[in-house]
Amino acid sequence: xxxxxxxxxxxxxxxxRVNIGRKYFPLFEHGGFVTRAFHNNSLVFYPSKxxxxxxxxxxxxxxxxxxxxxxxxxxxxxxxxxxxxxxRLSIPQDLRLRMGIEKEVTLVALGTKLEIWDSxxxxxxxxxxxxxxxxxxxxxxxxxxxxxxxxxx
Length: 153
Hints:
Layout: E1 4-11, E2 17-19, H1 25-28, E3 32-36, E4 43-47, H2 48-58, H3 66-75, E5 79-81, E6 88-90, H4 93-99, E7 104-111, E8 113-118, H5 119-128, H6 131-152
Antiparallel strand pairs: 1-7, 2-6, 3-4, 3-5, 4-8, 7-8
C-alpha cells in the first residue's frame, strides 16, 4: 500500500459526503473503516487491510482484558465505507454529530490512515502547535523509542 502524506480542506454536502482528491485514492483502493480517533478530536479512516490487522491484533487472545474491551467498544462506533462513483466519502451522521462536522473538513493523511477533522477544530489544533511544542514531543518520542530498544536487548 502506498503511503500518503498530505492535508487539504473539503466542503461537506447536505448528505455528509466529501469529495476526495486523487492524492487520497491509494488509501481508498479497497474501502475501509471510519471511526473516532483515539484522541477524540477527529474521525479516522483506516484502509481495509490496516483495519483488519488492527482488529486481529486486538483479538489475539481469546479473553480480552478491560483495556482491550474499552478499545474495541471505542472503535466499534464506526462503520465500513468506500468511495461512491463520484469519489465521495460518506461520513455517517452519528459520527459527524459527535465530532461537530457540519460544513467543512480538513483531511490529514499520514502513512496508512486519514484523519477527518472539522476544519475549525483543525485550525485551533494547528495554531496551538508551536515549534517548541513539536520539538518537545519529538524528543519524548525519541526517548520512548530508545527505552523500548533497551528493553528489547
